[in-house]
Amino acid sequence: MEHFTAPNITLAFIVALAVSTTLRFWLVQRQSRHIAAHRASVPAAFADRIDLSAHQKAADYSQAKLNVGRIDLASGVIVLLALTLGGGLQWVSDFWTAYFSVDTLWHGVALILSVMFLTSLIDLPLTLYRTFVIEARFGFNRTTIGMFIADTLRSALVGLVLGVPLLVGVLWLMARMGEVWWLYVWLTWVGFNLLVLMIYPTFIAPLFNKFSPLQDPVLAERINALLIRCGFRAQGLYVMDGSRRSSHGNAYFTGFGAAKRIVLFDTLLARLEPHEIEAVLAHELGHFHRHHVWKRIAMLFAGSLVLLWVLGQLMHAPGFFAGLNVQTQSTGMALLLFFMVLPVFTYFLQPLMSLYSRKHEFEADAYAATHTSGASLAHALVKLYQDNAATLTPDPLHSAFYDSHPPAGIRISRLQTLGQPS
C-alpha cells in the first residue's frame, strides 16, 4: 500500500495516459498515410476481382472513419481528464449528496448511472455523424432518425432492466462481504454473463431485429448437411433483417446449449452464392468446434477476477482517490473510478488480444476449408471486403495493434494454400 500514494497514482495515470494517447494518434497517422499511399492501385492479389473504384471507395471510407476516430480519441481524453483530475466526478458526487448519504448504496447507483448518461450524451454527436453522414455518404446507412431514436431508447431500457439490478447487487456485495467482496462480485458477474448469453437470442435480439426461419429449401438442405458433417446442433436457421439498418453483411451463431441458433443477415444471402454462404457458415462453426467462444469467455472471466482483486487492494488506499482528485471514498466511487482509468493501462495489452483473435480466425478458416472449400470462403471474403468497403492495404503495425481479423492479403493467401475437402 505504501506505493499507492497520491503523487504516485497521479504520476502513473498521467504518464500512462500521455504514452497511450501519443501511441494511438501515431498509429492512426500511420494507418492514414499507408492507405493513402496505396490508394492509386489495387493490390495485385485482388486486381482481377476488385476494380479500382471499389478499392478507392474503401480507402476513402477508411480515411473518413479515421478522421472521426481522431476526434473521438481527443474528446475521450478531454472527458477523462475533466472527470478525474478536473474534479468532474467529485462534482457529480457532491450533487447527489444532497439527496443520498455518501455511504449509502443509492448514492453509488445515482453516481454511476449519471456519469454513464453524461458520457453517452457527449458521445452522441459523433455517433450520429458516423451513422447519418459517413455511413450514408458511402451508401451503407439505411437507419432512419426514428429508428435510431427507437433503438437508443430500447438499448437504454434493456441496459436499465439488466444493469441496475446487477449494479445494486455489486455495490451491496462490496459493502457487506468484507475483504473478499471481490470474489462474491466476480461470481455474480460470471452468473450474469452466462444468463445474458442464454437469454440474448430469444428475448433481447428480437427487440431490435426480426428473425425469420430460412425459407430457401435448397440452401437450408445444404446448410443442414454441413451441420451434420460438423456435428453441430442448433435450435434453427434464422435470417435477420440487417438491411433495415445497414447494407453491411454478416453471419454468426449465438447462445449456448439448447438455445444455440445460426443467424444469417439478409444482406449476406442477397450477395453470396449458396456455396459461399456455406463456407462462411463453416468458418463460424469452426469457432464453435475449436471452442473459441468459451476460451474468450474464460479469458474474460479470469481477467475480471484479477481486476476485481486489484480494485479490492486499491479502494483501501486513500492515495487512489486523492491521486485522481476525488475526495469521496465510497464503494460506488471506487468502482466507477477504477473502470474509468483502467483502459489507460490495459491499452498496452491490445496487440496481444488482437494476435489471439487473429489466431482464432486462421483456425476457423482452416476448419472451413476442411469441411467446405477454401476457394469458396476466399471468394466470399473478397465479396464481403468489397461490399463493406474494407481496406485491402492496412498499415501492418496498426493492423497488429487493432485488427481482430487477419489482413485481407494474408488471409486470402493462406486460404489459397488450403486444399479442397476430401
The poorly predicted ranges are none
The profile of the biggest β sheet is: 4 strands, mixed
Report the portion of residues in β strands.
Answer: under 5%
Mean pLDDT: 92
What is the oligomer described by this structure? single chain
The arrangement of helices and strands along the chain is HHHHHHEHEEEHHHHHHHHH
Distance between the termini: 61 Å
Please compute the radius of gyration using only Cα atoms: 24 Å
The percent range for helix content is over 70%
Strand order of the largest sheet: 1-2-4-3
Shape: globular
Tell me the number of structural domains. 2
Count the strands?
4
Q: Given the helix and strand composition, which structural class is it?
A: mainly alpha
Number of contiguous helices: 16
Outline the secondary-structure elements.
Elements: H1 6-37, H2 52-83, H3 88-97, H4 105-137, H5 145-176, H6 181-204, E1 211-213, H7 217-230, E2 237-240, E3 251-254, E4 261-265, H8 266-271, H9 274-289, H10 292-314, H11 318-322, H12 331-346, H13 350-371, H14 374-387, H15 396-402, H16 408-417
Parallel strand pairs: 2-4
Antiparallel strand pairs: 1-2, 3-4
